[in-house]
Write the structure tokens for this entry.
Amino acid sequence: MFPLPLEILLLFTVTTPAAGWAGEKLHRRSICALYAASGLTASGIALSQMFTQLSSGQPFPASNDTLFSAVFKVDTLGIFMATIFTVVGLAATIYSIKYMEKDSGTIIYYTLLMAMISGLTGIVFAGDLFTLYVFWELMSIASYVLVAFRKEEWEPVEAGFKYLMMSAAASATILFGLSLLYGMAGTLNFEGLAATLGSSPPNCWMYVAALFILVGFGVKTAVFPLHTWLPDAHSAAPTPVSALLSGVVIETGVYALTRTFFTAFASTETRLFILLASLSVLTMFVGNVTALLQNDLKRLLAYSSIGQVGYVLAGVAIGTELGLTGAVAHIFNHALMKGTAFLCAGAVVYKLGSRRLDEMSGVGRRMPVTAAVFAISLFALIGMPPLNGFASELTLVTAAVQADASWLGVALILNSVISAAFYLRVLRTLLQPVSSEKVEKTKEAPFLMLLPMCALAVLILIFGIWPDQLLRFAQQAASNLLGGR
Amino acid sequence: MISLSYYIVFAISLYIIGLYCLATKRNMIRLVLGIEILMNAAHISFIAFAAYVSPGMVDPLAHSIVMVSIGLAGAVSAVGLTLVVYAYRHYGTLDVRELRRLKG
């Protein structure tokens, strides 16, 4: 028995092909997308019910914890993450109706999209590491195919193959790390791991297992030396998929890393702090500095995702409650901001037919709504005060200073400044006077694309102006994680 | 009974062979097989631990884990081989060094 939101998602994943087939028969191809979107909505409603149940202190009906069943344990952090997936996934699905209109095989596309979102939700609800691994593979396999979805072009195929190679090797590495953990603890349950390994003094095998798991999840998270697949895969994928990959999938790696490190490796945490902190600083700098050099809009956004992951990792490395609050809140905000930015970039690419920044000058004057929404998301990514990026970045910096790691805080602020350089460059390009014939003919994006973009932008504004609710939720999730030791 | 450390050494050397395969081979199909070797290293390690984790019995948990994971590995290599086919159609070769058009 799965938790209800996950069950709904899996049910809709399996039945989406039938809905798509009925849609083809009725010559209404959007039926498939609407069916998937309704599945996501239903799962969102189930999630909100679970949240009210959790916040009123009622325990969930215990899952049947027999030896062979999948183990689920839903807590505040899980619900928090699942909410992000549902929101961004819904936006991407609605956006896809227009964006994928001309592609063939959209039935498979929506099925895979739903499979990916169910995989993501399963990861955050998992109560043991193997359940997490199975859903991890569900998400990964769906995302390999989605990256290479436009198989008639060379770019997605090459990017997809590169992505599959690195990511599948990483999955095997994770599995090896899990086997070592299993050998030491005799269980893969988070509670069991925390009870056996979390309290015992670390031995050398613990560090080996930690290394395997760090490398494995680090590839999906795009931690510095393992990030090379990300810009290719995220820019070659269809834009709604890029929005999901950049906004959500890479954050799942951070989530899984955090979960394992704060249960199984709780005793090694102080020594791993330096490693994680230096990796996070390197990741930020590499991501943001390389983004400065890009001329491809989607590649630029992909590199800036690497930078943003560095911020989140810094919060995890600090490891205090405030640091984790900042990290969790930044995961939420980054999903909103980067999702919106990618969807806007996709709208520009869809209308203009080019991803090159130098051919884009003046597009903003022809697509005013898209440009306005894009501006909101870019300002939020920089961390401008009235928008949501500010609240979480400020929390991260405060946490760094309180934990006597001011150098991390300085690196964060420095990176915000560097990132402002290329985000503002995108904005300037959009607002330049119209130069070419091609731009002259460009029109505003269709309504079905504007709708999810604007909805996400409104969320950015709401959580920017009233961040208290979000931060309280994030703090609950963080203390939940620390209390799980 | 053979000591556990032999199994661990075997699993780790299999893992290293898999990584070596990924790092040096040029044929894309061999790369997919490299992934399989990596997965199998992890499986062997699980199976070996299953016999030693609780003395006197073989833990069925690890065996069920490996069973599920073999299925997952099959799915991954299916997707991998499909991508190899499409890459072959675009590039006309199985040499992975030709897949160098993406830069930056």
Chain B has a mean pLDDT of 87. DSSP finds three helices and no strands in chain B. The longest helix of chain B spans residues 60-91.
